[in-house]
């Protein structure tokens, strides 16, 4: 177990490397050190299958020289290696071309209070391996009592503890410690060649917030058996209901389309559209790095920029792109604290919930698809086009009629945002990107 | 935390460890009664270059050094890893991995490590990328960039990414094996964006493999890579929406190989077989598909991205017959699965890096050539869909899979006609395997740029196939 207070060794190493870089001629330098401890147990059919325990450290470096950028990283933290990497990076930077937008962020005017974020739970660190193993075993055991379940992919429990230390030549030094724990279970049902599979999980920063083994098992079973005995359907255009995991998937695609990197590169259909009405009034999307105990919260981003609450879409109007320092400079905007190395990541990126219960949304549907799973790669941010393999439940007269398989859904994110008819109240923060149940007026569902 | 070693890369022994240190760690790993233990040491240097908006934006250099210790007890795996190769940290890792077995003490026989050399060299390298001047690589990137940009005025944006790595591994195990290998890799890819009348489309092309820099002058020039990416984006500007519904489908040679990877390869990985989660688990020697189909996985093809001299648990790899004339003939084995299934290993235990234990994986997977010419196959379809480029796919253990088609064409009266943009194909593997009607004689491999993900681990792979006709398949599009 580590102390929650600062780690002086890591801090000193980071600061020493920053000074070394300056001495070697870097105009600006940023050093990030990660120190993590991982535990993972996989159990399957009542027995431990894998047990992992490890600690590891990692270092990431960015240097700027005459507005030219270079970066480096290493899992070898010996000082001589890191110094060589810094020297190499400065030399490499000089071989590239100047980029007026490159460089560290200006020093921030304020700091986020680390304690208010509640990122660390000492209970997670204190937990004994035996307790963790038992949680996984119990979860699977409960699920296997259901006779409809014919095989198991296993249950896993994992914990992570990670310290991040960041120092740069603009005078920033910061650090934070975070924990993460997750309980998950994958199941299979069916006979012969007619197999179906699904899973459920709970992941949190604090142990007390984690769903119980009973709940994870119950949901995993429910989610698996509902796919049994699917039918094929004819190709048609129908309303599609996205369950929360599916809304999250759609939001992940939306995130890639409002990322400042994609916007300045014009590889998103949402480029140059700030202030435009891109969705209907039901759509409000927020990125918030400050929500206490949420998975996507952090006091500062990878560049030391304090995180914040950013309204991305307000009642259908595109308000903000999510930016790191580079994208912000390119777009003449301000960083939103979404930096991650040279790219942009979500903090907590979510769709504001509505007032309807998911059952009410299903009931309102005369004929349609309740989308439960998609597979494949068919997302194109340049056009907003969506085309994926899909699984779901067929709705007739407001009730679940039967599962469907071997279908694909196709549509366009731009159209979808305008065609959302209903938004559910069931927002849960199980991942950094999340949303409630939503109903879209029409998509093409292709079958036979 | 700061180590005493004076190592500054490059150097011969990046690990600064002696065989006797590893022997000691293996003995400790087995001290609680494990059946088997191994240690995977990795030292990898990776570099990348990114060009966009007419300038070289960024170069990076990344160093990976560490080791992973695995202990197997029956079907259970204990694993620990560390980036700190000090005696103390290795000892902690060995003890953590050992705890998968629970005896208080175990008899350990004296371990003798004997050095074995790989039999074959799959890397085809004259000029090792990681030892070459940066300037040369910057030139490659710039050539690819400008070639794409000048293809047509409609090309508005180009992004070029170059990557190289050399991974050195050293694997020792409690059966006395000690083996080292060096694995070079290079990759040059271009993404081009074309824009016309308010419509925007993107195209992609690239190449590389376990080859040296000379590959980009002798086999595939940066100019060609740039041009092909631009051409795809340009073609897509004219592409129509895909049809939705069931149609006969013809797969182009090479790029469609991802179909065999997803629809068949994954489900023949031995971990899914022994756990009985794959629908193939009870189908060895059974007819599962058309007699037209024969499938191999071959990690020994020279220069290919998926190739290796030794797998990530020390086994020398073999070209493995998976399906012969529609009949299941073999599985992709790693050590653990082979042992539990009482089958021979065939060198398919792979891992992403030292933080992961090996699992059964594909390498270079392909459908073997058949007897038809491509023209014959295309001529046989009155109305259907021609898949020119598949960008990726996904499969479930139950056999349901999808593929994303970045570029397709309509087939009308036996002729390839209009280009079709982004579509998705979906099916169930047993069904599709039975619906393969014709297999062409024109076996080709896809772009040497692919990466396969399984259980969070990414490894380089490639795949190939000849022109193939599937009698019916569901195509997702808009109506």
Describe how the helices and strands are arranged:
The complex is a heterodimer of chains A (448) and B (479).
Chain A: H1 8-23, E1 28-44, E2 47-65, E3 68-74, H2 79-95, H3 114-117, H4 122-126, H5 129-144, E4 149-168, E5 173-191, E6 194-204, H6 213-225, E7 236-242, H7 244-258, H8 260-264, E8 285-288, E9 309-314, E10 317-318, H9 325-331, E11 339-340, E12 343-344, E13 349-351, H10 358-363, E14 367-375, E15 379-380, E16 385-396, E17 399-412, H11 413-419, E18 420-423, E19 433-434, E20 438-446
Parallel strand pairs in A: 7-14, 13-19
Antiparallel strand pairs in A: 1-2, 1-4, 2-3, 4-5, 5-6, 7-20, 8-9, 8-13, 9-10, 11-12, 14-16, 15-16, 16-17, 17-20, 18-20
Helix pairs in contact in A: 1-2, 5-6
Chain B: H1 19-29, E1 36-52, E2 55-73, E3 76-82, H2 87-98, E4 114-116, H3 134-149, E5 155-173, E6 177-196, E7 199-209, H4 215-218, H5 222-237, E8 245-251, H6 258-265, H7 270-274, E9 295-297, E10 320-324, E11 327-328, H8 335-341, E12 349-350, E13 359-360, E14 364-367, H9 374-379, E15 383-395, E16 400-412, E17 415-420, E18 423-428, H10 429-434, E19 436-439, E20 444-445, E21 451-454, E22 457-460, E23 462-465, E24 468-476
Parallel strand pairs in B: 4-6, 8-15, 14-23
Antiparallel strand pairs in B: 1-2, 1-5, 2-3, 5-6, 6-7, 8-24, 9-10, 9-14, 10-11, 12-13, 15-16, 16-17, 16-18, 18-24, 19-24, 20-23, 21-22
Helix pairs in contact in B: 1-2, 3-5
Describe the structure.
The complex is a heterodimer of chains A (448) and B (479). Chain A has 448 residues and is α+β, with helices and mostly antiparallel strands. Chain A has helices spanning 8-23, 79-95, 114-117, 122-126, 129-144, 213-225, 244-258, 260-264, 325-331, 358-363, 413-419, and strands at 28-44, 47-65, 68-74, 149-168, 173-191, 194-204, 236-242, 285-288, 309-314, 317-318, 339-340, 343-344, 349-351, 367-375, 379-380, 385-396, 399-412, 420-423, 433-434, 438-446. Chain A is built from eleven helices and 20 strands. In chain A, strands 3-2-1-4-5-6 form a six-stranded antiparallel sheet. In chain A, strands 7-14-16-17-20 form a five-stranded mixed beta barrel. In chain A, α1 runs parallel beside α2 and α5 runs parallel beside α6. In chain B, β6 (177-196) and β7 (199-209) form a beta hairpin. Chain B has helices spanning 19-29, 87-98, 134-149, 215-218, 222-237, 258-265, 270-274, 335-341, 374-379, 429-434, and strands at 36-52, 55-73, 76-82, 114-116, 155-173, 177-196, 199-209, 245-251, 295-297, 320-324, 327-328, 349-350, 359-360, 364-367, 383-395, 400-412, 415-420, 423-428, 436-439, 444-445, 451-454, 457-460, 462-465, 468-476. Chains A and B meet through α1, β2, β3, α2 and β6 of A and β2, β3, α2, α3 and β5 of B.
């Amino acid at each position: 177990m580590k102390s929650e207070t600062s780690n002086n060794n890591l801090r000193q190493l980071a600061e020493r490397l920053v000074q070394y870089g300056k001495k070697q001629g870097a105009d600006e330098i940023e050093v990030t050190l990660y120190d993590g401890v991982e535990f993972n147990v996989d159990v399957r059919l009542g027995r431990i299958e894998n047990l992992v325990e490890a600690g590891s450290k990692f270092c990431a470096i960015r240097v700027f020289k005459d507005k030219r950028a270079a970066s480096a990283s290493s899992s070898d933290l010996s000082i001589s290696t890191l110094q060589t990497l810094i020297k190499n990076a400065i030399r490499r930077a000089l071989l590239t071309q100047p980029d007026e937008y490159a460089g560290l962020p200006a020093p921030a005017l304020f700091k986020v209070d680390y304690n208010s974020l509640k990122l660390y739970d000492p209970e997670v660190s204190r937990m004994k391996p035996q307790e963790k193993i038992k949680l996984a075993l119990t979860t699977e055991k409960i699920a296997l009592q259901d006779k409809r379940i014919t095989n198991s992919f296993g249950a896993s429990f994992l914990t992570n503890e990670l310290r991040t230390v960041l120092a740069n030549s603009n005078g920033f030094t910061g650090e934070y410690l975070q924990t993460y724990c997750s309980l998950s279970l994958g199941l299979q049902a069916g006979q012969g060649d007619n197999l179906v599979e699904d899973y459920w999980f709970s992941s949190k920063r604090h142990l007390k917030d984690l769903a119980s083994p009973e709940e994870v098992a119950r949901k995993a079973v429910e989610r698996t058996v509902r796919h049994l005995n699917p039918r094929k359907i004819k190709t048609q255009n129908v309303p599609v209901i996205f369950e929360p995991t599916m809304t999250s998937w759609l939001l992940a695609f939306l995130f890639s389309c409002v990322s400042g990197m994609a916007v300045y590169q014009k590889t998103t259909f949402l480029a140059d559209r700030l202030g435009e009405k891109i969705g209907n009034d039901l759509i409000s999307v927020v990125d918030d790095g400050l929500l206490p105990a949420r998975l996507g919260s952090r006091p500062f981003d990878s560049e030391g920029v304090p995180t914040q609450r950013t309204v991305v879409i307000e009642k259908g109007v595109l308000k903000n792109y999510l930016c790191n320092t580079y994208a912000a400079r390119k777009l003449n905007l301000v960083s939103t604290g979404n930096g991650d190395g040279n790219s942009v990541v979500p903090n907590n990126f979510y769709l504001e919930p509505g007032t309807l219960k998911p059952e009410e949304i299903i009931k309102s549907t005369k004929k349609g698809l309740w989308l439960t799973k998609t597979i494949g790669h068919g997302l194109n941010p340049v056009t907003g086009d969506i085309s994926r393999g899909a699984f779901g439940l067929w709705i007739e007269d407001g009730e679940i009629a039967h599962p469907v398989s071997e279908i694909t859904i196709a549509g366009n994110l731009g159209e979808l945002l305008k065609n959302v008819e209903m938004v559910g109240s069931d927002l849960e923060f199980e991942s950094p990107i999340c949303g409630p149940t939503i109903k879209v007026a029409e998509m093409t569902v292709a079958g036979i | 935390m700061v180590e005493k070693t004076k190592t500054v890369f490059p150097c011969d022994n990046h690990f600064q460890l002696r065989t006797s240190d590893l022997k000691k760690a293996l003995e400790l790993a087995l001290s609680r009664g494990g059946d088997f233990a191994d240690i995977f040491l990795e030292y990898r240097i990776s570099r990348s270059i990114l060009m966009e908006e007419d300038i070289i934006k960024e170069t990076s250099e990344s160093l990976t050094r560490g080791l992973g210790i695995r202990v197997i007890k029956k079907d259970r795996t204990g694993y620990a890893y560390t980036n700190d190769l000090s005696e103390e940290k290795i000892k902690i890792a060995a003890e953590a991995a050992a705890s998968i077995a629970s005896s208080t003490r175990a008899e350990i026989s004296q371990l003798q490590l004997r050095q074995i050399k790989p039999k074959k060299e799959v890397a085809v390298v004259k000029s090792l990328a990681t030892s070459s001047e940066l300037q040369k690589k910057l030139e490659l990137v710039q050539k690819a960039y400008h070639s794409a940009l000048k293809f047509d005025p409609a090309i508005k944006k180009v992004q070029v990414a170059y990557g190289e790595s050399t991974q050195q591994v050293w694997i020792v195990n409690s059966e006395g094996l000690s083996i080292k290998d060096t694995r070079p890799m290079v990759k040059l890819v271009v993404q081009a964006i074309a824009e016309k009348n308010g419509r925007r489309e993107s195209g992609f092309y690239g190449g590389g493999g376990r080859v040296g820099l000379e590959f980009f002058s002798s086999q595939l020039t940066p100019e060609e890579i740039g041009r092909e990416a631009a051409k795809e984006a340009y073609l897509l500007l004219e592409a129509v929406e895909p049809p939705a519904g069931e149609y006969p489908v013809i797969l182009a040679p090479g790029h469609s190989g991802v179909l065999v990877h997803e629809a068949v390869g994954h489900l023949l990985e031995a971990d899914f077989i022994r756990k009985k989660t794959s629908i193939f688990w009870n189908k060895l020697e059974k007819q599962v598909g058309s007699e037209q189909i024969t499938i191999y996985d071959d990690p020994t093809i020279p220069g290919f991205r998926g190739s290796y001299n030794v797998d990530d648990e020390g086994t020398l790899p073999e070209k493995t017959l998976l399906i012969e004339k529609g009949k299941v003939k073999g599985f992709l084995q790693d050590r653990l699965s082979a042992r539990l299934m009482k089958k021979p290993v065939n060198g398919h235990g792979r891992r992403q890096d030292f933080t992961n234990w090996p699992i059964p994986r594909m390498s270079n997977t392909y459908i073997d050539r058949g007897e038809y010419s491509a023209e014959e196959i295309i001529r046989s379809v009155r109305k259907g869909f021609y898949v020119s480029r598949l960008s990726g796919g996904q499969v479930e253990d139950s056999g349901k899979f999808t593929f994303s088609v970045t570029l397709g064409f309509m087939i009308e009266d036996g002729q390839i006609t209009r280009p079709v943009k982004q579509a998705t194909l979906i099916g169930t593997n047993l069904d599709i395997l039975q619906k393969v009607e014709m297999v062409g004689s024109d076996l080709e491999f896809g772009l040497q740029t692919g990466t396969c993900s399984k259980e969070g681990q990414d490894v380089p792979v490639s795949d190939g196939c000849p022109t193939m006709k599937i009698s019916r398949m569901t195509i997702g599009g808009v109506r």
